Predict the 3D structure of the following.
Amino acid sequence: MNSFYNSYLLIITFFIIALSLPILSLSIGKWLRPPSKEGGRGVSYESGIEPFHDSRIQFSPQYYLFALLFVIFDIEVIFLFPWAVAYGKLGMFALIEMLIFTFMLCFGLIYAWKKKVLEWM
Amino acid sequence: MNLEQPPSMEGFLSFFIYVVPFLIFVLSFVTFAILAERKVMGTMQLRSGPNRTGGRFGLLQTVADVFKLLLKEDTIPKDADRTLFKWSPILAFVPAFMVLAVIPFTKHFQFADIGIGLLYYVAISSLSVIGIVTGGWASNNKYSLIGGMRAAAQMISYEIPLVLSIVGVIFLAGSLNLNTIVGAQQSVWFILYQPVGFIIFYIASVAELNRVPFDLPEAESELVAGYLVEYSGFRFAIFMLAEYVYMFAMAAMTTVLFLGGWHPIPYFEMIPGAIWFAIKFSLIFFSLMWIRFTFPRIRGDQLMTFAWKGLIPISIINIFLTAIIYEILS
């Protein structure tokens, strides 16, 4: 049990160190680097022309469709993980159940495929 | 490092003594990995690569580059979202380093031995996309935004085959603990039982790392540098560091899951496990470089189609074939 707690304490240690390395190096760099002078430096790069409009534009709705598909399949994966761990004890019954579950998801994937959701652009 | 002691504040502080040298090791690994990549690229393109700074082999080239980046002016675009712009390199780096906590390098050299090690790896490593999207969004630049959005679409699409290909390994080992998974490969490495899984994992990991041929988020010739356009100086350096640390983690994970971790090949037991791990790890790392210098970039529509119509159906079939063959043999 102690090793369980200590392992998670180690993960917190990793988190703190991972957070402090960039913050420390960027703060130390502040003393070393010259101050940023203005003069066109703050203008966004747009192949040499003056940027126009806001750049946070509306983008293609296809990104949302892929995000939705991702959520569905990621949840499938979450169900597959414990199934794969416990499979040795569950046997044939679990296999058939998981086949039915995956078949329904694959049916959704085929539907999306036929609806041309998976065609990019 | 004693994990059996009762948890205490002193114990917690003493962990820093072990993790800080490991961080320095990873940083020096990244330094020389970048140099090695440039040298190998030079050799493959019939030129010599870096050869001035630090002797004939350019050994200090990357160190010089890092110090140069540290001394560069820190420019933030006028209309950028300043808070997000500053935080996004950190958001990209933190998960890349945190996943290293669970990887067993040898039988005795592992930091956190948690029961759900593989799930932890998959969960934390998928967070690194947030840093990239944040960087693309905060820069207020059209190239950055396109790069960031592409990165999001690509990384979530390839996340699924990556994770599905691991299910076969979990199946054979019957555990999510990485130590148990390596232990189960004592006699036969999982690459022999799961060749399809290995290939899918490898392809998906190249795509997760945003490397050629899947480097659409930062495609130089069309998007300048994608989400990195407005980043300069040390913030850029931290993005690069995150990329290479993530590459280190991915290569180590491929070794652990499919190549038997520290286990030797038969009749070569006298070579210690750490060296075996290093050999397998370097082979994977070298092949990642090799792919980068050999393949052209693929088109955006091919990229998404390849993941959804190719890799995901194959990996689902692979899982059930594994299960059915296991059922027949047992």
Chain A touches chain B through 70 residues (CB under 8 Å).
